[in-house]
Design a protein that fits this description.
264 residues; mainly beta; Immunoglobulin-like; 2 domains; eight-stranded mixed sheet; 3 helices; 18 strands; 47% strand
Length: 264
């Protein structure tokens, strides 16, 4: 007597389709219980020469976890977890449903997952305006990530917008509204001293690659002493916050040196 099992309920020769990022491809399997008994199915065997699972081992099964009453049909949702570095593209394989080989097409989508540690940097700026820091960077996605040799971000004063507005309006005195607004905008603009420049060796970070990288942070000469400035850089999906505390005018020594050379 043949074993009572859940069967594939579709004769479509194209089979079924799964779609999504490597860690969570989703698809639907049409299944039927042709018996007069309540049946359950936990997983399906997979036949593939290319796809690997989350631990980079060959993909052998996919979970379904379904219970069907006698005669019940269901479109059963299932997920497939692949190696996170599986490249975007279309892959073909098959699953075995009660002895029936069902063709499956998996469409793997792009995943950009750049990671950087530490995610924040503090610079104590005195007479120097160039600083080196080392980071651990990782490409946890499935596409190569080019990292250029230079990026920039605006530095902003820690004085908030409200304080700047009150200071600007106070400086305007009894001026007309338009002049007060201009005074506020001027004061706010003066609190943006320039751009933070970040220099590094250009590389292409391959999927799954993790390494150390050194970056040079260059500050503008217009920073005021005893202030706090911040800059936020976005590197793909990751963010790096840079906080700068000035203890004196940046490049004061170099400016004095140039002045002496010019006879000042």
């Amino acid at each position: 007597m043949a074993e009572s099992v859940i069967q594939y309920a579709n004769v479509d020769p194209k089979g079924v389709v799964f779609y999504g990022p490597p860690k969570m491809l989703r698809g639907t399997l049409p299944l039927v219980n042709p018996t007069d008994q309540k049946l359950k199915m936990q997983s399906l065997a997979v036949t593939t020469d290319t796809l690997r699972g989350p631990a980079s081992l060959p993909l052998q099964t996919i979970a379904v976890g379904v219970r069907l009453m006698p005669g019940e049909q269901a479109a059963v949702r299932s997920t497939i977890q692949l190696d996170p570095q599986t490249a975007p593209g279309t892959y073909s394989f098959s699953v075995d449903v009660a002895g029936t080989s069902v063709p499956v097409t998996a469409h793997v989508t792009e995943v950009v997952d750049f990671r950087i540690e530490p995610a924040s940097v503090t610079l104590l700026a005195g007479s120097e305006n160039s600083f080196e820091r080392t980071f651990v960077i990782e490409n946890a996605g499935n596409v190569p990530l080019p990292l250029g040799e230079r990026c920039e971000a605006p530095l902003t004063d820690s004085i908030d917008l409200k304080t700047s507005m009150l200071h600007g309006l106070s400086n305007a005195g009894d001026a007309e509204v338009k002049e007060k607004v201009n005074a506020w905008l001027k004061d706010w603009g003066e609190r943006m001293p320039g751009m933070l420049v970040v220099l590094r060796d250009p590389i292409v970070l391959s999927p799954g690659n993790k390494m150390t990288a050194t970056a040079t942070f260059q500050l503008p000469d217009t920073l005021q002493p005893f202030r706090c400035y911040t800059a936020n850089l976005q590197l793909y999906n990751a963010f790096l916050t840079v906080t700068v505390y000035t203890t004196r005018n940046v490049n004061t020594s170099s400016k004095k040196k140039r002045g002496n050379e010019d006879g000042v």
